[in-house]
């Protein structure tokens, strides 16, 4: 597991780890096919509809109602990928209770945000076209900014400071990209789910 460094070999922020070539090209092609075969629907945030298509397993957060609910279980075909993601992050696979599939068609991206506080660890596998993941945090009246390139078949892990202090976004894509994001529940969400 590597801490992500910028052009000057300084750490972007504590809690960000990345690795290249987490899976083979043939596995990538298979995962893309399976994501496209899933019941993807446009991402909805209140009255706004995003350009990216998504589907959640395990748990889902409804941005229109503000509700956090159980979803269909993570399917068997995602278990080997979840196990690799957990191993990369130093977690037990059973801790990764949510899987989010996303397809970014040309023109799609994700605006600035932090993942919902019900989630703790965020581990993403990037498929298809490369993408730029941007980070920012407020320092006084301005934002401190960083970015990292996500190569096809690469993986990232957000925890600690980069997860809770910094916002992140994905620049709009000009080519198709897919991703699988696994998340663990926060301690408070785990207690509430019992």
What topology does this entry show?
Blueprint: E1 2-3, E2 16-19, H1 25-37, E3 41-45, E4 48-57, E5 59-62, E6 67-70, H2 79-89, E7 96-104, E8 110-113, E9 119-128, E10 131-139, E11 142-150, E12 155-158, H3 160-164, E13 167-170, E14 177-185, H4 187-193
What would you say about this model in short?
The protein has helices spanning 25-37, 79-89, 160-164, 187-193; strands at 2-3, 16-19, 41-45, 48-57, 59-62, 67-70, 96-104, 110-113, 119-128, 131-139, 142-150, 155-158, 167-170, 177-185. The chain is an alpha+beta fold.
H/E order of the elements? EEHEEEEHEEEEEEHEEH
CATH superfamily: Alpha-ketoglutarate-dependent dioxygenase AlkB-like
Q: Could you list the spans in which at least 5 consecutive residues all have pLDDT below 50? A: 4-10
Rg computed from alpha carbons, rounded to a whole number of angstroms? 16 Å
Q: What topology, given as strand order, has the largest sheet?
A: 1-2-12-9-14-7-4-3
Question: Strand content of the residues, in percent?
Answer: 35-45%
In quaternary terms, these chains amount to single chain
* Number of helices in the DSSP assignment: 4
Question: What percentage of residues falls in helices of 4 or more residues?
Answer: 10-25%
Name of the CATH first level: Mainly Beta
Instruction: Output mean pLDDT.
Output: 87
Distance between the termini: 32 Å
Number of strands: 14
């Amino acid at each position: 597991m590597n801490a992500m460094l910028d052009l000057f070999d300084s750490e972007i922020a504590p809690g960000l780890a990345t690795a290249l070539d987490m899976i083979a090209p043939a596995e990538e092609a298979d995962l893309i096919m399976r994501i496209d075969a899933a019941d993807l629907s446009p991402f909805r945030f209140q009255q706004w509809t995003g350009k990216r298509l998504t589907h959640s397993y395990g748990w889902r957060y409804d941005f229109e109602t503000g509700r956090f609910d159980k979803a269909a279980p993570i399917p068997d075909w995602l278990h080997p990928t979840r196990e690799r993601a957990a191993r990369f992050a130093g977690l037990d696979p059973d801790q990764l209770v949510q899987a989010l599939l996303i397809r970014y068609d040309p023109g799609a991206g994700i605006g600035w945000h932090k993942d919902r506080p019900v989630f703790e660890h965020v581990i993403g596998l990037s498929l298809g076209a490369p993408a730029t993941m941007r980070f920012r945090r407020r320092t006084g009246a301005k934002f401190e900014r960083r970015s990292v390139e996500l190569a096809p078949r690469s993986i990232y892990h957000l925890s600690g400071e980069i997860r809770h202090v910094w916002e992140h976004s994905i620049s709009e894509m000009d080519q198709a990209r897919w991703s699988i994001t696994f998340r663990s529940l926060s301690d408070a969400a785990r207690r509430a789910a019992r």
